[in-house]
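Lecture 7 notes: from sequence to structure.
We start with the chain below.
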Amino acid sequence: MHSQNDKTQVALHIRKVYDSQMAVNQLPRKGLTGNPNLRRHLL
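Predicted structure tokens for the same chain:
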């Protein structure tokens, strides 16, 4: 049960990072520097 929860957390994290990268790809370059969270995911 514990490992299943861990798998879910990892999947959610990967999804969140992926969504962040997609969002950044849609934004102009300028928007990237305004959001440290998104930039950290990309680096």
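Points to note: The helical segments are 2-26, 29-34, 36-42. The first helix runs from residue 2 to 26.
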